[in-house]
Write the structure tokens for this entry.
Amino acid sequence: MIRGLCVGVIALAAACSSSPGDEPIDPLATAYCDACSELSSCERVVTEALTIVCPDETRAWYTCATDNACDEMPCELEWAERDLCMGRAPKDKVRVRILSVRVFNDRCSANIGYRGTGPTREGHTLPENSISSFLAAMDEGADGVQLDAAITKDGEIIVMHDDTLERTTERVRDTPEDNDCTGCVSAMTLDEIRACRLVDGAGNLTEERPPTLLEVYSAIGGNALINVELRVFEATSECPVGTDPEELVTAVLEEVTRIGGEDRTIFSSRDATAAALVKTERPGYYSAIVSDETGEAEVEQAVELKQDAIHPDASVPKDTVTSARDADLQVNVLVVDTADLTDAQIADLMEEQIAKGSTAIITSEPAILADALAARVSSLSPYPSFRLGPKARRNSRVLRVFAGLGGPAFLVVEAAAQPRVRRAVNLGLSPFFGRLEAECFDRRQRVADLLDQPGPLEPLGRHVGEDRARMQSSTLASGTSAHERR
């Protein structure tokens, strides 16, 4: 399907871009095309790309690619800055993922499992922050999971909530004798912590080790959201070495980037310094501040630190949620301290968060939230299973393809065609969006903002070095690009 779309869009670009009165060819387009492309319409397409969408950032990328003999590797910074300008950085993709769960998956809120299926507690068979708990949360209907990331003595990242091991782990027979699986995370190496085993809510030893980030991302595949909460511990008498926020943030960002998980990762922290460092080191990554306080000051702080969201407690007032949404912040509410509540009370509490306009709920009970969302959708649906009509289904798929494209080589969307695409999408989805906006979340949630963003007008050939030879036989007249024949 995507290959066919690419071919059709390239042909559309050629049809729309050739007309009398076209602007002169940009000298940079000539230089780039002479060095890097055999495509007959290269100069015209590159000229349009340089003038229509994020011209400064686009020019910087083409200049870098030309100066480096079509080698894209030295130009990653320029590409990231262009993605950020176009609203297609990792943070934007995470925002779209959260929005698409609410809209395209017939939901009123994203469902994120807190430490999987919640903290290690009496009557609960799964250890917190374990692979089994994360997988169980996904099986129960979660759209993603929340985990805690701490840094070890040797600078490695371990998934663990506390600053000590006592509550969540025990030693086993083959654990080295000098390691009793107690003490401070900051005083132990990754290998020492991994030699321990997690315990369940009854204190029974399991076969699971405290996991690494790589293990979690590998186990929770696909498009599932992963909320990595950065654990910054103060120095105490028991643990005299506190967490260096810069060391922690740098290590986590490098690991997630190496894994390739930035497009689905929510970085968050209760430590304002750590949350701010995420944006300092990786401005295009999604970051949120976690807080038990739920007032306007927290919204102002998040805006000042250029955050993408706030993660307040369930007591957050609706006015605060509204202020945050008006400030272009997503609001992912924590509904986690629910051990003393009945299932019905928990469901009611979740309903309150949806009614306030929250974008996601981070919960110890993803199964209850999944059931509550399903019941809510069923009661709102004008269709038996709340499915879109054929036209809306078709256009929603088109929108998801456009929203998810991350720069395939030689994909070009001519700007003149973009309003037609947006009108078609709006025509098919407007009744659907209108009902969701009226019934599921605050009207200030403007799905139209997503639809009105510029389409993916791509630089011609981010991967030119490897594809140039294949392009030599490519012609638009044949309707088949070298990229399509790979």
User: Anything to note?
Assistant: The first strand starts at residue 110 and ends at 114. The chain is about 45% helix and 10% strand. The chain has two domains: 2-89+402-417+430-471, 107-380.
